[in-house]
Design goal:
The complex is a heterodimer of chains A (224) and B (251). Chain A is 72% helix and 0% strand. Chain A is mainly alpha-helical and 224 residues long. Chain A has one domain. Chain A starts with 5 loop residues before the first helix and ends in a 5-residue tail after the last helix. Chain B has two domains: 5-103, Ubiquitin-like (UB roll) (Roll), CATH 3.10.20; 120-248, Fumarate Reductase Iron-sulfur Protein, Chain B, domain 2 (Orthogonal Bundle). Chain B has helices at residues 36-49, 121-130, 150-160, 167-171, 178-190, 198-211, 222-226, 234-248, and strands spanning 5-13, 22-30, 72-73, 76-77, 99-103, 112-114, 117-118. The longest helix of chain B has 15 residues, at 234-248. Classes of the chains: A mainly alpha (224), B alpha+beta (251). At the A-B interface, helix 2, helix 4 and helix 8 of A face helix 6, helix 7 and helix 8 of B.
């Protein structure tokens, strides 16, 4: 364990942990977006419910879920503590600032974007994950599937708005985070870095767009 | 002779490290051909003539190679131009009637000594922790007895152009010194002479960097954008790579 203690103590080690956990969350997002996009078959949620059922009962998926939560908690705890720590490194503030002249606003706002995502995540887990794992609400409700739960939640415009804001935060968080993770792991190469950055930009736009389309489409009744 | 520009300066005045400090406003007529530091020389002459304390600021070579001049000008280290130090910045980069805000590098790792001068000895301590090669003294060896491929030599030289001015720290929202440490580590890790201490060096320098109160890197890229020597962000990736591999080897 001593070999890995630098992941929690040194400035570079802590960034390495952010990068590794961040990339594992990126992999999760891809699976999550893929499964949920099954609602766009517009078959009353049949394909989607089938996929959700598989994810809920496959032992490999359930085991990875533990790893996912571990990574998520590490990413959040480390991110909050790093942000707080970094904010203490300049006690006397600048009188004039010109941040936009040398960097992008979202690269300087990862703590705030991440906190917005955390607030969204708590609401999101309460809507779907807690309901499907720990209570029998879905079974007892009229429709009884996760798809019916989506229809129910997104009938109300408030969650739809919160979900869209969550997706925008996710897009900007990924726009910096995806390529930044590779830099933190020491991967920066004149030939490969432009490819990583392009894939990162594509991922950061497409995945949140697919996610945001779900509550909007359900609220407007395009998906039934 | 070019027409004089009328400028308003908002300059940070601070008696010493303990005092609070505040902005003072001055009016000055400057030639567009003056360098920014020459404009400060004129300002100081005015202040001395009126019996006031001149503004303390760091400067030495005035040709962009020593790394002494600092000054955050309108929120940007070394002013609005890319790839220049404050001494290489000319008043023609500003407009007649401008108000220019001038402050010291601000970072906990760089305490203010007086006015615009800061104590950058934290960088010296980081270098002393590992930014050197150990070599046995003796007869001078023949030139080119250690062969270095041209591309490697170029890359090492690019990193070696770092003048240790601290603009990277002053631009970074986390006051991180990673671009400086990255440049020094890259330079030595590329070359054969740096190999014996390669792994112990990177760990010692990063430990010292953390101990000096500099922040962690969040890859915003502000440091590389403001670096007067245009050290690329890739040196930080090299630093990360060197550090991870040293740690994995139990250093």
């Amino acid at each position: 364990m001593k070999l890995l203690s630098f992941l929690f103590t040194s400035s570079i080690g802590r960034k390495v942990l952010m990068a590794v956990t961040g990339l594992s969350l990126v992999a999760f997002l891809l699976v999550h977006a893929g499964i949920n996009a099954c609602i766009f078959f517009n078959d009353g949620g049949e394909t989607f419910n089938h996929a959700a059922e598989f994810m809920a009962h496959n032992w490999l998926i359930r085991a990875s879920e533990i790893g996912l939560f571990l990574g998520l908690i590490l990413h959040i705890a480390q991110g909050l503590s790093l942000t707080a720590n970094n904010n203490q490194k300049r006690n006397a503030k600048y009188g004039a600032s010109a941040g936009n002249a040398n960097s992008k606003w979202y690269s300087r706002s990862m703590g705030i974007l991440g906190s917005l995502l955390l607030i969204f995540l708590v609401m999101h887990l309460k809507h779907f994950w807690v309901v499907s794992r720990f209570t029998n609400e879905i079974q007892e409700a009229a429709g009884s599937t996760l798809f019916d739960e989506m229809v129910f939640v997104f009938a109300d415009p408030i969650p739809v708005i919160v979900y869209v804001i969550g997706c925008i935060s996710l897009a900007y968080h990924l726009l910096h985070g995806f390529q930044s993770a590779f830099q933190s792991l020491g991967i920066n190469h004149p030939a490969y870095s432009p490819i990583i950055k392009s894939i990162g930009a594509g991922f950061s736009i497409i995945v949140p767009l697919v996610f945001a389309a779900m509550p909007i489409a359900m609220h407007l009744g395009w998906i039934k | 002779m070019s027409k004089l520009m009328k400028l308003n300066l908002k300059v940070w005045r601070q008696k010493n490290a303990e005092s609070a400090g505040n902005f003072e406003e001055y009016k000055i007529d400057a030639s567009p051909d003056m360098s920014f530091l020459e404009m400060f020389d004129v300002l100081n002459e005015q202040l001395i003539e009126t019996g006031k304390e001149p503004v303390a600021f760091d400067h030495d070579c005035r040709e962009g190679i020593c790394g002494m001049c600092s000054m955050v000008i309108d929120g940007r280290p070394h002013g609005p131009k890319q790839g220049v130090t404050t001494c290489q910045l000319h008043m023609r980069s500003f407009n007649d009637g401008d108000t220019i805000t001038v402050e010291p590098w601000r970072a906990n790792g760089f305490p203010v000594i007086k006015d615009l001068t800061v104590n950058r000895s934290a960088f010296d301590r980081i270098i002393a922790a590992g930014g050197f090669v150990s070599t046995n003294a003796g007869n001078a060896v023949d030139a080119n007895s250690i062969l270095v491929p041209k591309e490697i030599a170029d890359e090492a030289f690019e990193a070696a152009t770092c003048i240790g001015c601290g603009a990277c720290v002053s631009a970074c929202k986390n006051a991180s010194a990673m671009l400086f440490v990255g440049a020094k580590v890259t330079q030595l890790a590329m070359l054969p002479q740096g190999q014996p201490e390669r792994q112990s060096r990177v760990v010692a320098m990063v430990n010292q960097m953390d101990a000096e109160g500099f922040g962690a890197c969040t890859n915003t890229g502000a440091c590389a954008a403001e670096c007067p020597k245009q050290i690329p962000l890739s040196v930080i990736a090299t630093l990360n790579r060197e550090y991870i591999s040293a740690k994995m080897n139990g250093k």
